Amino acid sequence: KCDCAPNVCSDIVDASTCMGSKCPDDATRSCYWDSHKYMCSCAPPPACSDFTNSYVCAGSKCPDDVTRNCQWDSKTSSCGCAPKDCTSFLDSHTCVGSKCPEDVSRNCCWDAARGMCSCTPAPPPAPSCQDFKDHTTCSKNRCPEDASSACHWDSKDGCTCKA
Questions:
Q1: What is the pLDDT of residue 48?
Q2: How far, CA to CA in Å, does 54 sit from each of 77, 78, 101, 151, 156?
Q3: Residue 90 and residue 80: Cα distance in Å, rounded?
C-alpha cells in the first residue's frame, strides 16, 4: 500500500521506524521515541547545554551560533553559549565587571535608564600630526604623539611628525 510521507516525527507511529529517522521538517535533527508520551518526537537542536563535561564544553562552538564558543559555568556546573555582546548580560550583577565580548579591551556597563547592559564607548583615537589638515596649522604644532618633535608639512604625505 502507498502511504503519505511523514511531515513531522509525530506522523511516524511505530518506535522502530521513528528511531532511525531524520526529522522530516529539519534533516539536521533526528527523531526519537518518547516513551512517556508514547509518540515519535524531533530531538531538540543541539545546544551548549547538551555538553555535560567542562572540557568538551570549553572546546566547542555554540551549535546554534558557530561564531561563538561554549563556556563552562563552574558555579552551576553547566555549559552555556558565551555572550555575543554586552546586551547578553540581563542584569546589572552579571553586566558590571564583565569585559565586552565584542572588544575585550573595554568593559560592559549597566545603563539604568534603559535597563540594559552596554559596552563603554571606544576611546577616541590618539591625536597625531595627521589631524592637522593644512600647512599653517601643521607647521605651528608640536607632535601630539611626541612633544619633543615638531609636525612637518609634506606636500605628498600631508602633516607628519619629524624627529
A1: 87
A2: 8, 8, 20, 55, 57
A3: 15
